[in-house]
Amino acid sequence: MRSLDRHRDAGAYALGVLDEADRFRFEDHLGQCPGCVARVGGFGSATAALALYARATPPAVETVAEAGPVLLDKMVSGMERVRRGGRRRWLCAMAAAVVLAVVGPGVVVLGGSGDGAVRLDARDAGTGVSASVTASGHEWGTALGIEVRDARGPRVCELVAVGKDGSRQTVTSWAVRAHDTAATTTQSAVALRPQEIARFEVRTVDGTRLVAIPMR
């Protein structure tokens, strides 16, 4: 997939369907575009749902055909329209839209009532970054409410879920403006269930850990 407008590649990048060359070009663009950072981060629920589907699909099940550029463009454009209609509705509809587009009708991935929400708070005295994560368990993974305070921008940060087995899943990412003392708040999800999570980490995109939030 090639695009003259790198902004339009945000959805394809988040879903992991860019080829190696375009992925490299988009990552170069991502470091200079806070808007695309926000777009990529917003696909956290969709990528979590797809990861859950991949984990739950038996090896003997035939994988579906790769979505073509026309389907991907329609899917990403449709999710952008839903996003403008409301953040909470966007998160649910986006995950459902991607799962249906990939696995077809009749396959139910999301569902089930959530466990009681747990609020986790942490602050790192060295970096000055504080974070709160509200985690609610579901059959498909963990829904997250995220609030981060970081006044040492500009920089691009991400929230990473670290599993008890050592695995890592990037939940979402965002841009921190210079001298911005306001909290960054968002909602996302991860395919790991609460009992599978050891901690969350706020990191810069170059790998520097800013604060760790242990899961209890």
Describe the fold and architecture.
With 216 residues, this protein is of the alpha+beta class. It has six helices and eight strands; from the N terminus they run H-H-H-H-H-H-E-E-E-E-E-E-E-E. It has helices spanning 10-14, 20-30, 34-41, 44-56, 69-84, 87-103, and strands spanning 118-123, 130-138, 141-149, 155-163, 168-176, 184-190, 197-204, 209-214. The protein has a four-stranded antiparallel sheet with strand order 1-2-3-6. Strands 5-4-7-8 form a four-stranded antiparallel sheet. A hairpin with a 6-residue loop joins strand 1 (118-123) and strand 2. Helix 4 (44-56) runs parallel beside helix 6 and helix 5 packs antiparallel against helix 6 (87-103). It is globular and about 40 Å long. 34% of the residues are buried. Residues 82-113 have low confidence and may be disordered.
Strand/helix succession: HHHHHHEEEEEEEE
Separate helix tally: 6
Q: Low-confidence segments, ≥5 residues, pLDDT <50?
A: 82-113
Category by helix and strand content: alpha+beta
Shape: globular
Q: State the helical fraction.
A: 25-40%
Question: Major β-sheet, in short?
Answer: 4 strands, antiparallel
Strand order of the largest sheet: 1-2-3-6
Strand content: 25-35%
Number of strands: 8
Helices and strands in order:
Layout (H helix, E strand, L loop, with lengths): L9 H5 L5 H11 L3 H8 L2 H13 L12 H16 L2 H17 L14 E6 L6 E9 L2 E9 L5 E9 L4 E9 L7 E7 L6 E8 L4 E6 L2
Antiparallel strand pairs: 1-2, 2-3, 3-6, 4-5, 4-7, 7-8
List the keywords:
216 residues, alpha+beta, 8 strands, globular
